[in-house]
Amino acid sequence: MKKFFLIITLTLATVIIIASSNPPTLVTKSYLDNLMYSKLNPINQQLTNLDTQFKTIQQQLAFIKSKVSLQVAVIIDKTTAYIDQQPKTLDVAPRIENGRTFVPVRFIGEAFGADFKWDEKNQKVTYSVGSNYIELFIGKNTAHINGQAVPLDAPPFIHEGRTLVPFRFMGQSIGAQVEWNDATRTATIIK
User: Fold this and answer.
1) Is 15 helix (H, G, I), strand (E, B) or coil?
2) Nearest to 165 by CA among 106, 111, 77, 123
3) Residue 135: how many CA atoms within 13 Å on its side-chain side?
4) How far is 167 from 154, CA to CA, in rounded Å?
5) Could you tell me if 158 and 138 are in contact, meaning their C-beta atoms sit under 8 angstroms apart?
6) Which domains does the chain have, with CATH numbers?
7) What secondary structure does DSSP assign to 36-66, as a single string?
8) What is the per-residue pLDDT across 80-130, written as a single tens digit (0 to 9) for each?
């Protein structure tokens, strides 16, 4: 029996020595939170940096897209137009005459970077966009694109001192896509 107590005593002494050399650690929620924060914080910082870089890239892409693509929308009988959804004020409202939509040539053309000239004597407006040179004559059903005669559905006319041209011709003459929304009476040119 003595031997048994000696073994138990030695075993307990060993356990106490081992326990005292490696004291048990009390794990609290605060400790775990700090541990998780120290391990995850660098990852969170990397994710934040990536998110910032992604937003910067999105802004750069939007800027590039705005330079590559442009959308001009006008509403019949309204003097507010939109260039890439930004409101602009027109001198004269677009209108429908004899079933055709007419838009102010200068506003649309300048939105797409056209250079204009007005010849009062010949009642002619000319504009160039890229490599296209367009001539329109007030009251005439023929225009010229790069010297080639092109028939018009309806002739350009002057209204309130501004030249109005057929919407579809205007879009096509600058190489753009044209859209019409009958519900909102909105004419859109996209290039």
Assistant:
1) helix
2) 106
3) 12
4) 10
5) yes
6) 70-190 (3.30.457.10)
7) HHHHHHHHHHHHHHHHHHHHHHHHHHHHHHH
8) 999 988 999 999 999 999 889 999 988 888 888 888 899 999 999 998 888
